[in-house]
Amino acid sequence: MRLRYRTVVVTGGASGIGKAICLKAASEGAKVVVADIRDDPREGGENTVDVIAGLGGEAVFMTVDVTRWEDMDRLITDTVGRFGALDVMVNNAAAHGGKPLLETSEEEWDQIMAVGAKGMFFGCKRAIQQMITQEPREGAEARGRIVNISSQHGMIRAPNDFAYGVSKACAVYMTRQIAGDYAEHGIVCNAVAPGKILTGKTGSAIAPEAIAYSHARTPWPRLGRSEDVASAVIFLASDDASYITGENLMVDGGWMAN
Fold first, then answer.
1. Are the C-beta atoms of residues 253 and 195 closer than 8 Å to each other?
2. 164 is catalytic
3. Which region, left, alpha or beta, applies to residue 186 given φ > 0 means left and ψ of -120 to 50 means alpha?
4. Distance between CA atoms of residues 67 and 174, nearest Å
5. Beta carbons of 55 and 27 less than 8 angstroms apart
6. By three-state DSSP, how is residue 33 classified?
7. Domains of the chain
């Protein structure tokens, strides 16, 4: 119960990796705010809040468009009004493109960067505005913790997915900048970089050529699961990670080592 009595906000928490993070946080005792533009999982199945409630946890859903400052402002204000504090902010929401540079339109670039870069900027900024006003929990050093979801493709090429790769590179840099700037204020900021994660999505993400490429790049005998990423996020969100900030933790089965 590493997150007992703590409040965790997860953007993009209705589906895939975000849903797994919410479930894991709830299992560790957190009060969870599922922030998304929709509450039904893209991969199908029961919605996040209902699953948590069925397991005896506490969660609420808030409709949020991370590209809009007023939505993010309302998200944090309402969270604090309901639960009293913001302990952990997980910036998970992202958008994919699937095109190389010359085929990426201005519209597609703007959409992907609005979610992956501007949305993360809004999430970090609004979270820190709140966290900096809080006293640390009893026995803890940090006033609050931020975990950004990056990707191995923030450090190496994302094949034919130019805008997405750039947005994830922004996530890696943003994490380090914030960690350095706000450590003296008791704010911890880290990132988790998933490798190939099978979330239940259909389409190009699980096309035979995509799976073959991912297996060829991944030394571990299997590809990742959403729960693998969730476990890393919860570690960084907890006091177990008491002297770690500015890191980009790879959860990739050895992809970047290969």
1. yes
2. yes
3. left
4. 16
5. yes
6. strand
7. 7-257 (3.40.50.720)
Which residue type sits at 48? Answer: T
Q: Are 26 and 7 in contact (CB under 8 A)?
A: no
The per-residue pLDDT for range 3-53, each reduced to its tens digit, is 999 999 999 999 999 999 999 999 999 999 999 999 999 888 999 999 999
| Cβ-proximal residues to 154 (8 Å cutoff; 6+ apart), any chain | 165, 168, 169, 170, 171, 172, 193, 248
Nearest residue to 247 (alpha-carbon basis) of 190, 164, 171, 198: 190
pTM for this predicted structure: 0.95
Question: Which residue is it, tokens 């030394």?
Answer: 219
Helices (H), the chain: 16-27, 48-54, 69-83, 106-113, 119-131, 162-182, 208-217, 226-237
Q: 5, 164, 173, 182: which one is catalytic?
A: 164
Question: Two tokens at 224?
Answer: 């990742």
